[in-house]
Write a structure and sequence with these properties.
single chain; mainly alpha
Length: 98
């Protein structure tokens, strides 16, 4: 499971860095599709909390992309919750490997 978890982390981390660098307000359909892939991978690992975080980003991001009335603040909040959780996973994985 750790190898699969490491692979998922290695997929999510570049995505979140890229999204931050381009600006959260520029989230697009391709970004949302990548989140869907992360959700499927997290389901295979039975990582329910990560699934919830990703589903929230997917729903809010999709609403923002499709509607000019949607608020980027919701996407931003969910994005930073995901970042915090990913940092926790990174630290936890590092301590297990050591």
């Amino acid at each position: 499971m750790m190898n699969a978890l490491e692979q998922l982390v290695d997929q999510i981390n570049p995505w979140r860095e890229r999204l931050l660098l381009k600006g959260l307000a520029k989230i697009n359909e391709q970004d949302i599709q990548e989140v869907n892939q992360f959700i499927m991978a997290a389901r295979q690992l039975d990582m329910n909390f990560l699934i919830q975080l990703l589903e929230r980003i997917e729903a809010q991001g999709r609403a923002y992309v499709r509607s000019s009335r949607a608020d980027i603040a919701d996407v931003t909040e969910s994005y930073f919750y995901l970042c915090q959780y990913m940092e926790f996973i990174n630290k936890d994985a590092s301590s297990i490997i050591e």
